Amino acid sequence: MSRTRAGATRRNPRSVLALDVSRLGRRPGSMTTVTETVASPSRIGLDLVAIDKDAPVELDLRLESVSEGVLVTGTVSAPTVGVCSRCLTPITGTVSIDLTELFAYPDSATEETTEEDEVGRVVDDTVDLEQPIVDAVGLELPLSPVCSPDCPGLCQHCGVALADAEPGHSHEVIDPRWAKLADLEVADTTRAQDD
């Protein structure tokens, strides 16, 4: 299931998305590729749609040494699960992101002139891709996912999914301001029948 090419190996057992870059050294131009599938370390995404914890995450990456650090480029894709924002039925899909991330070497000019949240860092010859993937997936997923573009949603009165409701599904709704008049009309009709 899992495959790594050209020598990139796991270094941090706490994060499956941390990759060892020690074989790259600090030689600009040296490169390695990573093509493997790993289990998602946590739920990644938004409230209504996300990559589930332990879902297969496919990495197809190139790690390249540049003068200021390690440049990681490539694609990350995974299945998603969630609920339709209109009718609340379960939905599934996939998300694919293009990743381009620079991780600064310790003591490099980039490390000294940027904040830690601006540019990742190479720590103990390791780059951790988890936060860049979390950020990119969050931007790629829809805030309001739908099961279909024309999903009619739920009935506002009884909560039934309108796609599954009988044709002409409706409720007689009386404006609360006029409800007393309806009671008066019923009372007048009853009195008329008694006479």
Automatic annotation (TrEMBL):
It comes from the Bacteria. InterPro entries: YceD. Pfam families: YceD. PANTHER family: LARGE RIBOSOMAL RNA SUBUNIT ACCUMULATION PROTEIN YCED HOMOLOG 1, CHLOROPLASTIC (PTHR34374:SF1). This is DUF177 domain-containing protein. The lineage of its organism: Bacteria, Bacillati, Actinomycetota, Actinomycetes, Mycobacteriales.
